Amino acid sequence: MSFQNILIFIALILAYRLLLKKLPRGWFLLVASSLAVFWLQPSLPIRYLDFWLPVATLALAILAWVITTTPENRSLKQNLPAFLVIATIVLLVGLTRFISPTGFLAPSRPPQTTTIILVLGALAAITWLLSLRKRNPSGLLIGGIILLIVLLVILKFPPLTTWVSAQLRNFTGQSAALASPLDIRWLGFSYIAFRLIHTIRDRQSGRLPQVNLQEFVNYVIFFPAVTAGPIDRIERFTGDLRKPAEMDSTRFVDGSRRLLAGLFKKFVLADALALIALNATNASQVDSGGWTWVLLYAFAFQIYFDFSGYTDIAIGLGIWLGIVLPENFNRPYLKPNLTQFWNNWHMTLTQWFRAYYFNPLTRALRSSKRPLPAWFILLFTQVTTMVLIGMWHGITWSFIIWGLWQGIGLFIQNRYSEWAKPRTSALTSRPGWGKAFNAMGIILTFNYLALGWVWFTVPDPALALQVIGRLFGA
Amino acid sequence: MDQNPVNTPHTKPSPRILGSVLVRALILLVIFLGLAVVLDPAGALGKASLYNNLFQGRERFPYGENPQESYNMTINNLDAMFASHQVSRPRQADEFRVFIFGDSSVWGTLLSNEQTLAGMLNEQAIKTCDGRRFVFYNLGYPTLSLQKDALFINRAMQYEPDLILWPLTLESFPGMNPSTSPLLGFNREEVKRLFPASDLPAEKEQTIWNRIQEQRRGLADWIRFQIYGVMWAATGIDQDLFQEWQPAQRDFDPDNTFNNKEKFDLAAALDFTPLTTGISLAGDTPVWLVNEPILISSGENSAIRYNFFYPRWVYDDYRQALQNEANANGWTYLDLWNLVPEGEFTNSAIHLTPAGQRLLAERIAREIERNLECE
Question: Which end of chain B has fewer surrounding CB within 10 Å, N or C?
Answer without folding.
Answer: C
